[in-house]
Amino acid sequence: MAKKSRTFIFDDGKSNKFWTIEINGKSYTVRYGKTGTSGQTASKDFDTEETCQKEADKKIKEKTGKGYVEK
């Protein structure tokens, strides 16, 4: 399975942050922080690709619900 990466930006005038998720098979890695920095990373592994995708979609929905917009 090919890697899929999506980046989201949050800019409300007070803060300017990014959040990127890269899905790679049965795991995903998120990178987040202030725009212009390298940020922090966190990875999570799952039993199946389907579970990984489902959890990634859930995280994306959380971020867009908080005002993040896909770049």
Can you summarize this structure?
This protein is α+β, with helices and mostly antiparallel strands and 71 residues long.
Please indicate the percent range of residues in DSSP E strands (runs of 2 or more): over 45%
Poorly predicted regions are: none
Gross morphology is elongated
Sheet with the most strands: spatial strand order: 4-3-2-1-5
Number of strands: 5
Tally of helical runs: 1
> End-to-end span in angstroms?
23 Å
Q: Tell me about the biggest sheet?
A: 5 strands, antiparallel
Percent range of helical residues: 10-25%
- Rounded mean pLDDT is 96
SSE ordering: EEEEHE
Radius of gyration: 12 Å
Class derived from helix and strand content: alpha+beta
Architecture overview:
The protein is α+β, with helices and mostly antiparallel strands and 71 residues long. Helices cover 24% and strands 46% of the residues. The chain is built from 1 helix and 5 strands. The protein has one helix at residues 49-65, and strands at 4-11, 16-24, 27-34, 40-45, 69-70. Strands 4-3-2-1-5 form a 5-stranded antiparallel beta sheet, with helices on one face. The protein starts with a strand and ends with a strand. The mean pLDDT is 96.
Write the SSE topology:
Elements: E1 4-11, E2 16-24, E3 27-34, E4 40-45, H1 49-65, E5 69-70
Antiparallel strand pairs: 1-2, 1-5, 2-3, 3-4
